[in-house]
């Protein structure tokens, strides 16, 4: 059996300076409390602020636009942003541990693209509105697409030489995303204009007001998948030793790999089915946290949930505030890409220098 509190060895670090200070040895409670407070602050700000100015006093006085925005419109949208950010961040942390690659994250690996393609196929076939279970069928279709993309990328990486595995993963993910985007664009030409407009959102990543049924469905999918990953946090620490050493300590590496892949696909599929492609959240949050608290996934995973939620809420708020003078707002996926793209290039450059 795997030791329930297996601590990550120094060889496990995805960042070479991750535990050179005693920060990683401190109690996790202050970190989690600080992350929870940051999330609460972001949620409150996202509800109170937006493209339309509202008054809390007028909302308390009686029905009107202010109460509608503060009670019925913004809270569900902010909840979706928080759920999406939490899920994408925790999946990015799990992928980086499983593949032992700091560049691994759902968007880069093609998982988000595969999930978007699965959801697009469901919409093109009318499954999303064909039955009362449409809100649950879309995440299921996206889950299947994300799982297929994950298995494809992982299969390519397993066949590559060890020294080229990281490059193979990145190239395979990029190609899966390109193929998925091309197929989504092709499907847009085969459906009605109204449905084609609905399909466009999978390529840009929007946070919009979800229906109660859809929000409940994505919450269940993300909660179940995240719970599976949190349960395996100590086992993910052991993977840093290498597969053979982890198996010698009693870890069933193949079973863990299957569980992580399924859980990640479940989370990403549900999120993408409502928001489309929101990239780089799973890269920014784990990388920043690893440098702050070290490589222990028992702390990294819950912190990723909290700060990932805070990040996407903040990006959604920025999209609403910074461009309201234009009478429009950019997709959240564009905001996260502007933040994550430079960070991705910096990490890639640093990893290349370390290999020289």
TrEMBL record:
GO terms for molecular function: transmembrane transporter activity. Gene3D superfamilies: ABC transporter involved in vitamin B12 uptake, BtuC. Residues 1-23 are annotated as: Disordered. InterPro entries: ABC_BtuC-like, ABC_transptr_permease_BtuC. It is a multi-pass membrane protein. Keywords: Cell membrane, Membrane, Transmembrane, Transmembrane helix, Transport. Pfam families: FecCD. Belongs to the binding-protein-dependent transport system permease family. FecCD subfamily. This is ABC transporter permease.
